[in-house]
Structures are given as structure tokens and as C-alpha cells.
Amino acid sequence: MPLIPQQPPSVDTIIAAHAALRAQGPLVQCLTNTVSVNFMANVLLAAGASPAMVDNPEEAAGFAAIAGAVLVNLGTPTDAQVRAMRLAVQAAHSLGRPWVLDPIGAGVLPWRGQVAAELLAQRPTVIRGNAAEIIGLAGLGNSQAKGFDSSSDPADAMPAAITLLKYATCVSASGAIDHVVGKVQNEHGEVSHHLLRIAGGSALLPRITASGCSLGALVAAYAAATGDGFCAAAAAHVHVALAAEYAEPQAQGPGSFLPAFLDGLDRVDASLIRAKAQVESVRL
Amino acid sequence: MPLIPQQPPSVDTIIAAHAALRAQGPLVQCLTNTVSVNFMANVLLAAGASPAMVDNPEEAAGFAAIAGAVLVNLGTPTDAQVRAMRLAVQAAHSLGRPWVLDPIGAGVLPWRGQVAAELLAQRPTVIRGNAAEIIGLAGLGNSQAKGFDSSSDPADAMPAAITLLKYATCVSASGAIDHVVGKVQNEHGEVSHHLLRIAGGSALLPRITASGCSLGALVAAYAAATGDGFCAAAAAHVHVALAAEYAEPQAQGPGSFLPAFLDGLDRVDASLIRAKAQVESVRL
Amino acid sequence: MPLIPQQPPSVDTIIAAHAALRAQGPLVQCLTNTVSVNFMANVLLAAGASPAMVDNPEEAAGFAAIAGAVLVNLGTPTDAQVRAMRLAVQAAHSLGRPWVLDPIGAGVLPWRGQVAAELLAQRPTVIRGNAAEIIGLAGLGNSQAKGFDSSSDPADAMPAAITLLKYATCVSASGAIDHVVGKVQNEHGEVSHHLLRIAGGSALLPRITASGCSLGALVAAYAAATGDGFCAAAAAHVHVALAAEYAEPQAQGPGSFLPAFLDGLDRVDASLIRAKAQVESVRL
Fold it and tell me: Which is nearest to C216 in space by CA: C61, C55, C39, C11?
């Protein structure tokens, strides 16, 4: 059973999650698309986690037993990689290991849409996507997605995100203001839904490829470090937003933003989170 | 039927093509090699297009119907990716969607050479390669290619390039001075061949991997935006040359050239094209 | 038969190896993991070699006959890539072409461990890994590897490395101080084992992904240029260490270290090697 926290994440719990990430350096197994794989590994290393991209069917389940968390990203699936995803996710589910689903293109392309639907049955800890992908995954209608970079307003994805909470403990939709919805359970066992609006970041983030994919991997790293999917998603979004804010004034464009963003992931610390995190919490 | 322009591309049509690219942000489906895939996506994003690397046989044809253009690059083909290439290219051809062939290694390695020959039957809008690759693809003799980085003088590839115009509306051979040949049709329906020599760029461009591959993707992006393969190739070559010229004085070597080149792709605009493009046009 | 040198590598032979690399620009065939493939190609280009990532079963053996050396890296093997590895390595072995094995994860994951054991029978010229991987490959017990980034002390891997000299002419274990062991044969045909301890480098090197993988490819490039595996490993380790030392003072973190490290690989020259290489040689 995934952990459902008693409180929604706050700046304090995000700072504690960051300290746990740095102390543990969790190992994250990424089954991801070919575009993101190098950058994602560098993002995890810069943030303080340890990446391993074991994504063949021969090894995926065995490695899920070693890893602290598993990320499944549907960006460029192959037949063999999809078999590996099923095996890794079954292993993670049966071992109680957190795993994160990034359903790129699932609402646009039927083959991977079917794969995503299957994987949902294994109860991802967190589902992360852009607004169009969250809408597409929930099957709530046309997402007007243009390719994979589309950004519908995350606020428009909230009904879809809440629907997906029947599978996951937390669902996040990235955009100008990231929207993260998750479950909270009080001492009487009553479950409520909370929304975090996380502001900040940089307009250059969507100008570099795999920034969203790498955010998904960082959610998995935080989930490994904390066991709490809602807090993990919040902490990863804040971490990425602050790193982007560090990078933007140093960048001359999207190219020079790339190394500065990795530097920023390395630099984020408790005092920066305390000073700069923009997190608004709403009970739904 | 692919569009054959009435005039060869000029600086004015290249500026108009750039404006169209920026206005439309065309979606480009890339079936490309593993070395290039991340950099190519960043090149497309920096230039103003939208990348999607859908390259499995289950989805390639379906996505070609969504994309504005398709790029096929033979750098690291697998059996499954080749099946996806065939399907994507058939879909593009039957839908009248532009597509670009980058025949890396086709003259050196028989298996992919056979694949390239098959794909030619689906009439690429543009064929882009270095001089050795264009010579190899045309089967005009030994290309003296050393691996995939060889640069025979593009001028030596002109007979091969002209031979390949029976398949494509435009063929480009990259090198110190890029050579782009294409068809022009006058008001009486008479077709003539024109050569553009595009100078500029930087000696650091061939020192970074996938710069040529990414140029191929940018040709596809411009073809999606303009519908005119000859103009697309010219505009993409000019765009890359100017971005490289922006980057070179900022670089300490090939490593720092990489982010600066992406910044340059973002910065190229009408006034820079007007001031700096070096395009010489010759009727053959 | 692989060349066994009469003397262990010295700074003079490393300088000569570097001159040979720059003069020849050897073509290196890399069958490597998806995380490393782009960075590895840029590392080879920056250092002065020419990369080609031909890793499908249809072409791998044929290309090994063209390449100057072959690198096999087990980071993200697929069934098809493993078939290509077997074919490339058989071709390299039968042609007397140098090849390098990087056994990532071979001690942790049984499937690739079996593949690594098979490949050893084809006598790699050099085996390169971190300490945990060398220990894992030799089967000398548990390596306490955490994922693929672990760094046991290379000194602890020396018994394992010496065991592996029955397969290879040289074995290197990377770490804070790299340990490179190799065979030397005197004029009477007597073989002895020598250890080089190579110091320097930067604490930022393990903070970027694929730095070790790329070092393996550079070993292959030097082996192509010199024919001497022991010297190749020593030269590649020194080249990487000096490039990292060039990069570190220019970097604000792991992100900005990346381009600066590539610049450093380009800048290393005879005078820098003479002034800065830290190589200690010990007869075992």
C-alpha cells in the first residue's frame, strides 16, 4: 500500500525530502525514451540521485528489486521496452516500490495509449505529464495536443488529474504554473484531495527537450527517498523550478540554459527552497 | 506531387521561410540514429520547430499523418526501426507530406544501402548528406568515406547529386561550402537545375557529433513550413551556418560550441539572414 | 596476437600515443549504452578520433573490418545489440583488431554477466570499468555495487584486475586514483605485471553521466592508434584526467563541467601531458 500522508506537502516537508534525497542518493531505474536518456541521467546525478537505465525484458524486473524507485516514460516505446516496462512495474508493485508513470503521447497514439492503460492497473505512485497528456490519459476528451510539447493550461487538466487519483496517490500536470493533486488522509481515515500550485521556473524550460521527462525521473528519486508520492512530486517540481530560476539569468538562450540548469539542480539547498519556493496549497 | 518552385531560393525566400517556421512551429517526426536524437530535438526546439521521435513500427505511419514532415536518418538502423521507416515514408508519400532522407553510411554498408535504395522509391522531398554519402547513395563509385565523418569536397558530389534529382526535388551535400542542387520549373513547365553554394559556418561544426544529422531535421522542419524542398534545404543550411557563426567566437572549443550553437539557432532572425547569408546561385 | 610491450607506458610513450591519435584520427566502432552514445561520440571527436556507433547484427561484423578498434559497453544491452556485440568482437578478434570491454553491471545482473563471460573468450585487448565492475567481472565476490555508479577503491580491485589479465593485455579500474595493470614482456619472453597509478582528474567527473563509458571509448581510440593496449589505457586515462583538470576551474557545477571537459579533451597536448601527467609505475 502506498503511503498517504496526513498533511499535504509544505515547504518544510519539501526541505526534509531534499535532505533525504541528498543523504540517500537513491538509485532510480529509468525505462525512458531515447531523447531523454542522457539528459535524465545527468539531471538525476546533478540533483543528487543515482540513475540506471535498465530497460530490457531480461533484466528489468530483477533490477526493480535493487532500485529505490522505477520511472516509466512512454516517449519512444519499442516492443521489447514495453515488455520490460510491464515486468519492471509488476515487480515494483509487488515489492511495494514506488514507481512513476510519464504517459507521453498516450492520448494521441493508440498503441501506447493501450500500454498506458495496462500499466495503470499496476498503480503508479505518481503520474506526471503535461496538461494535454494528463487529459489524454484520463480519456476525458480531445487534448488538442500538438505533438508532445503541447501545453494546455494545467488548470484545464484538473478534472482529468482528479479522475486519475483512483489509480495513483498523486498526479501532476506541468505548465506555466505546475498543478499537483494528491491524497491526504486524516487520523479518522478520511481521504481528501489537495491541490498544490507551484509557480516559478523559466520560460526556457520548455525550450529544451526532455525537461519534463527528467522531472518525472526526479519525482521517482524523491519517491524513493521519502516513500511519499505527493511530497515527492511537490519536491521535484520545486527543485526543478528553482534550478531553472538559477539558470535563466546565466543563459543566452536555450543552449546555454542546459548546463546552467544542471548546475542549478546541484545548487538547490534548504535555504534556497526556504527563500524561493512558491507553493500554494488548496483543499479540493 | 511535390512543389517545384518557379525560382531558385533567394535570401528573400529564405527570410520568408524562416518567418513561416517561427509562425508555425511545425511538428517534425524524426526516425533517427541514437547518437543524434537528443541533440536533434534540441536543435529543432531552438530553431523554432517541434520534435517528436516516433520511430516504432506500431506508430510510425499513424504519426506521419499528424506530423508536418518526416525525417529518416540511417545512422544506427535496427530491424524494427527500418520497418518503421518504410511505414512512415509510405504514409508521408501517399499523404503528400514532405520527407527528408539522410543516407548516413549507405555507400559503405550494404544492408543500409539496400534500405536507402528502397526508400528512394518513395521519393524523398530532399536528400541531405555529406559529399561522400551523396556519392555513395548515387552509386557513382567509391566515396573514400572514412567512417561517417568523411568530407569529400561537396563540389565532387555534384554529378551524384544531380543524378539523385530523379528521385528528389533537392539534394544537398554539406562541407566547407555547402552545395544544394534543386529543380526549378518555369511558366512553360520546363524544368532546370540550379546550384546554390552556401558559405559560412564554422570549422567547429564537424567537431561536434550530429550537426549534419540535425541539419537534416531542420530541412524537414522548413519543408513542413514552406512545402518547397529546395527552399527548405537552402533555408536550413543558411540557418545552421549563421548559428555556427554566432557560436564560434563564444566557444573555447567543441564543447562550449555546443550550447552556443543552440543559442545561435534561437537568435537567427530576418536581419541576421539579410546581413550575413552567403548564397551564390548558379543555373546548371 | 595482441602486442605486449617491452616496457610499461611512461609519459614519453603517452605523448607519442597522443601524437599518433591526432595524426591518425582513428575510426572507433562503439556498441554502447543509450545513455552514453551522444556524449561518447563528442568525447571521441574532441579528443581527435572518429566515432561510428554501428551496433546492429546486420552490420556490426562488417564494420569491425573497417574500424580501427571496437568498443563494447554493456550498459543497456538489448537482445539484438548483444548479437551485434558477439559478431563485432569475433570479427575484431579474428582480424587482430583491438577491442575494449566495458562490463557495466556485469557483476550485478546475471544476464549481462553471462554475456560478459562469453565475450571474455574473444580476448579483449583492454577491460575497463570502475572498481566494483572489475571485481564483479572477475567473480571475486560481492562488489557492494550500488547501481552502476559505485566506486569501491580501485586498489581493492587489484586482485580481480590481475586475475582478468589472463584474458586481456590490460585491465583498468577507475576511481579517485585510476589503477591500470598490464603485461610487459622482456627480451627473453618473460612476462611481468605492472601497475600504473594515475592521479589527477576532478571530483566533477563522476557527477556527469557516461564519463567512464567515454573513457572506455577513448581507450579503444588509443588502441587503434598504437596497437598497444597497456599504453592505450594509460594514455586515455591521462588524457581524461588532464581534460577534467582543465575543466574544473571553469565549471560552476556538473552542468558547466560538461562542455568545459570536451574543450579540455581538445586542448590536451604534448606540453600539457609533460607538465601535468601524474603516473606512478610499480612492478607487481
Answer: C39
